Amino acid sequence: MMGIANVPYILKKAAWIVPAGFMYGTAPTFILVWGSWRMATALLPKKVYEVGDDFLYSLYQKLVLFFFENCSGVKIVLSGDVESMTKAKENVVMMMNHQCTVDWMVADMLAVRQGSIGHIRYILKNSLRWAPIYGWYFRQHSCIYVKRSGKFEEKTAINQLQMMVDDNTPFWMVVFPEGTRYNPSYPNIIAKSQQYAKDQDLEPLRNVLYPRYKAMQLCLNQLRSKMDAVYDVTVAYSDTTHEKTGSRITAPGLSAFLAGKSRELHVHVKKVSLSDVPKQEEQLKQWLYERYQIKDQMMTDFYEGKGEKRGRLDPCHETSNLSLRHTLPAFLFWSAFNVPLWMTALGRQVYWQSMLASTVIGWIWMGIVP
Fold first, then answer.
1. What's the rounded Cα separation, in Å, for the pair 202 and 99?
2. Are 324 and 62 in contact (CB under 8 A)?
3. pLDDT in tens, 10-61
4. DSSP 8-state secondary structure symbol assigned to residue 152
């Protein structure tokens, strides 16, 4: 029989269930509202639809941040060119080291502080295109899918990116150049990455993976004329070392993060001028590797450094608290739709039909369109 003393521990471990249920449960609601907007603007200029799409996407992502920032209790520690980043809205390609699914939320956390959260687009692995509801919608939101091998359907990607340029679509294009997550639980992936660096006569990286350049190259080639800068973002999670050995362990997933696994989230932003980003392929590869050398040193200091370096990406940092005024209206907005959809017989019927229809239509559409 479970002891009374275990109840607080169990409640803490299960703290992620309600927010995760609300966020995922809002997906059919989102697609219902978004689909209505899509049909309502079918005969109007494309820009009208895009403005509404970005607005609805921003409302959904602010709902996510309501739980991941305001309710999780995590301390957000920012460093680097944060002040410059938040001064004005910009079109950027943002590259980030990749450790876990929470990395997606980090892009939200930065973009909302600039007022650009609705403009986020992602380079995504191809398998996600089949995710119910999300996979289809992300394609509508100008996200780009890549093959698992890391090779693009290059013509499709170029067409998508060029369409964004032609339509003057605002963007934060998020790229994870490593291609997969750095996970200490999979040492074979880390070893393979390090061996590849050695084969290139380069110093192996210890706390990030060797970056692949193709996604960055395509984004830069196609979007440069509309870009303001490249944001080089480095992310580290506190409480990710083994209690006994001190060795690095896996970064928290969505549920662990919501349950308070990491008490601090550290984010360092380096704003890179386009004039400092090479256009030639070999030079770009070298530049990207050098940026990841810097990331690797920052991550190594975070886990192994002495004094002020340990547990920090930069000694000069600030704690950033996101006001509820940014996220609570989004929570209330989606709640106003969810309550009648979840609490009435007719609402539940519409809700489940929306979920089923959007999934089936999405799979068919994604099977036809590259």
1. 22
2. no
3. 445 567 888 999 999 999 999 999 999 999 999 999 999 999 999 999 999 9
4. B
CB 334 within 8 A of CB 63: yes
Q: How far apart are CA 166 and CA 296, in angstroms?
A: 37
Contact 178, 233 (CB under 8 A): no
Nearest C-alpha neighbor of 205 from the set 196, 194, 213: 194
Q: How far is CA 305 from CA 80, 183, 316, in A?
A: 18, 20, 15
pTM of the model: 0.92
Residue 342 CB-half CA count within 13 A: 13
- Nearest-angstrom CA–CA distance, 274 and 271: 10
The type of residue at 152 is: F
Sheet containing 317-320: give its strands across: 144-146, 120-125, 172-175, 92-96, 229-237, 264-272, 75-80, 317-320
| Alpha-carbon radius of gyration of the chain | 21
Packed helices 27-40 and 17-25: angle between N→C axes, nearest 10 degrees: 20
Residue given tokens 């309502």 in the structure block: 40
In which region does residue 299 sit, left (phi positive, over 0), alpha (psi from -120 to 50) or beta (all else)? alpha
Strands 172-175 and 120-125: parallel
Q: Which two tokens stand for residue 6?
A: 């275990």
| 3-state SS, residue 354 | helix
Measured N-to-C along each axis, helices 214-223 and 281-304 cross at an angle, to the nearest 10 degrees, of: 120
Torsion, Cα 192 196 201 207, to 10 degrees, reads -50
Helix, strand, coil percentages, rounded to 5, for the chain = 55, 15, 30
User: Domain spans of the chain?
Assistant: 72-320
Amino acid making up residue 355: M
Total Cβ atoms within 10 A of residue 186: 13
pLDDT tens profile 69-90: 999 889 999 999 999 999 999 9
